[in-house]
Design a protein that fits this description.
6-phosphogluconolactonase activity, alpha/beta, 7 helices, three-stranded antiparallel sheet
């Protein structure tokens, strides 16, 4: 695991943008496509807005990216809660990536059917015999220690076989669609972005506390053979034993 601490959220977004641009460049020296799973939330939004501008807009070969999402709320894409909608507004609507290389969760289907459809697409991309899935997965962490739609106390945290799941999250009174740890932990690289003082306590527990994924599901993300990078700002890192 690599821990990178930046001064503030602005520096965090810049450091992440540089990291992503360099990662894409390096990977595309060895293959002709780069698969990335995007995240929702305020911290990724700032990153998206930066990537959509110069110099990243010109540096990154967007036409070679194949875009997925780690999770999604079961809402239409034009709903303000949609992770895909946010990504189009802040990034994908400002760069050129072929539409057939952008894979949104199909929330016009029933929840279980939407999860099954995403599972089918992922297996077509990565196959059964391929040990590695995404080239890069971007993740955030909530104030409660959740990531993706893996919330504390939910069964999906411990899913070991299925790559996708749909389930009703009682505390939010809505369905969530999510990748599971079983596919994310096969990624070549997972990058967590965490900012703000509200994240300090859960971050300390996730990185330095006892293993308790039922309370802190982010602990379940541990790439088997890939890189795990935590990129956090000083306020989020305030309680860590440096």
């Amino acid at each position: 695991m690599q821990l990178i601490i930046t001064k503030n959220p602005t520096d965090l977004a810049k450091t992440a943008a540089d990291f992503i641009a360099n990662r894409i460049k390096d990977v595309l020296k060895k293959q002709d496509r780069f698969t990335i799973a995007l995240s929702g939330g305020s911290t990724p939004k700032a990153l998206h807005e930066l990537l959509a501008k110069s110099p990243y807009r010109e540096q990154i070969p967007w036409a070679q990216l194949h875009v997925f999402w780690g999770d999604e709320r079961y809402v239409p894409i034009d709903d303000e809660q949609s992770n895909a909608g946010m990504a189009y507004d802040t990034l994908l609507g400002h760069v050129y990536t072929p539409e057939d290389q952008i894979h949104v969760w199909r929330t016009e289907l029933e929840p279980d059917a939407a999860a099954a459809d995403y599972d089918r697409v992922l297996h077509e991309y990565f196959g059964e015999g391929n040990d590695t899935t995404f080239d890069l997965v971007l993740l955030g962490m909530g104030d409660d220690g959740h990531t993706l739609s893996l919330f504390p106390g939910t069964e999906v945290v411990h899913e070991k076989i299925a790559w996708t799941k749909a389930y009703f999250l009682t505390q939010q009174n809505m369905y969530r669609l999510t990748l599971t740890a079983s596919i994310v932990n096969r990624a070549a690289c997972v990058l967590f972005l965490v900012a703000g003082p509200k994240k300090a306590e859960p971050l300390k527990e996730v990185l330095e506390g006892d293993y308790n994924p039922d309370k802190y599901p982010s602990q379940e993300i541990k790439p088997a053979d890939g890189d795990l990078v935590w990129m956090v700002d000083e306020k989020a890192a305030a309680l860590l034993n440096k």
